[in-house]
Amino acid sequence: MLSHAAEDYLKSIYKLQEKEGKVSTGILAEYLDVKPASATGMIKKLKSMNLVKHERYQGVTLTKAGKAIALEIIRHHRLLELYLYKALGVPWDGVHDEAEKLEHVISEEVEARMDEILGYPTEDPHGSPIPDKNGVVPETFSIPMTELQDGQSCVVAEVSDNDSALLRHLGSFNLYPGTAFRVIEVAPFDGPFTIDIAGQQAVIGREVAKNIYVGKVNEVVNV
Amino acid sequence: MLSHAAEDYLKSIYKLQEKEGKVSTGILAEYLDVKPASATGMIKKLKSMNLVKHERYQGVTLTKAGKAIALEIIRHHRLLELYLYKALGVPWDGVHDEAEKLEHVISEEVEARMDEILGYPTEDPHGSPIPDKNGVVPETFSIPMTELQDGQSCVVAEVSDNDSALLRHLGSFNLYPGTAFRVIEVAPFDGPFTIDIAGQQAVIGREVAKNIYVGKVNEVVNV
DNA sequence: AATTATTTTTAGGTATAACTAAATTATAGA
DNA sequence: TCTATAATTTAGTTATACCTAAAAATAATT
Fold this sequence. Notes:
The structure is a homodimer of 223-residue chains. Chain A is of the alpha+beta class and 223 residues long. Chain A contains eight helices and eight strands, in the order H-H-H-E-E-H-H-H-E-E-H-E-E-E-H-E.
């Protein structure tokens, strides 16, 4: 059996590995809000359990066994988020923190019941894919909003779930996964995005836009 | 903030205090399946937080603050049991262990949502009273089944929830809270109870009967 | 009242997971 | 190439929560 902390490390390594390939101790420590020395200690422990591969100064990667556990925790987290949102009416900016605690604790049995009740969903309330029981992650195709240009139309695919203030901010513009919008103008010198959401205009700063991923981009010629 | 272990100690002291008044270190340790020395250590810690009163060799009692926390945890536990049973279809012999883990982790907000969805219930699936938000425990009137005599009819009020094998055994006789039955015969010398449940006979040993509490006892004259 | 038995406490030790501070290794600039 | 900076690791400390074994205090028995 793994400790909650160990599970969090595996989950974080998986997420960071997605983007960056190998994960450095420093990045991992920063992500988890612990000191690098603490991360080194946990990496050692996980290595001794054959859950990660690690060469000093070269970063960590998950082994097959480590990845399986990471995906199991992520599945717990995302199914819980959706269940809390849909079945219990927890607001979408609150489900992350709650799921963060519950994910280490629920049984496979309860998870299976939630999965069934929800109709075997493939996405959580923030648009992130829910891995299935066998650790298969549904493929998603999306790009950061920061790559959009003037006049492009698209649909919100996924937003970061870990900052509840950000989520409330997005909610105030109705920027949920599935919401369509059009880029009116991208201000020069890495300035903010002015967008149109169902007739309402909104100004989205670059830092915020980094946390929004969009799919189905269509070029639209302006009049 | 309290550790999970500390919460478990408070909960256990509350339950033991119900029956016995003051709770000895040894009894508490046995109940929690830890060594007496461990109980002493935790009692010290809880005393320093003003959650329990304790005089060496005289046993522990909860303070007002300690009782409030104990009742909050018990409320979490029993609401969770009922929610798992009713909303998620977890079998009644499984809800205890699951609730035992979740009770330390769910937020007041999620609890409030469950409470509402369940219609502000006052009893868990084993017939135990659910304290309200303010720590008021619904009064219950029940006596151990071991006090019944030949010919008496009554209704199951409450059963112990912590032994899943026992619960499966009771389930096989349909002995759920609310089930009516009649005592056919009590064997002499502390022997087993032969009872009639909706026309089906069952033999219930004394050790099992100790875990069943009954209400609404009516004398019935046999033909 | 003295001895025995039980209960409780103290003392010392284990494991986990965090920390700080110092030492080591790697990388990049002069 | 050598040095300065940055990243990583090691070493040692702290806190929680449990343990065992032995000492101390209380209760029960003769």
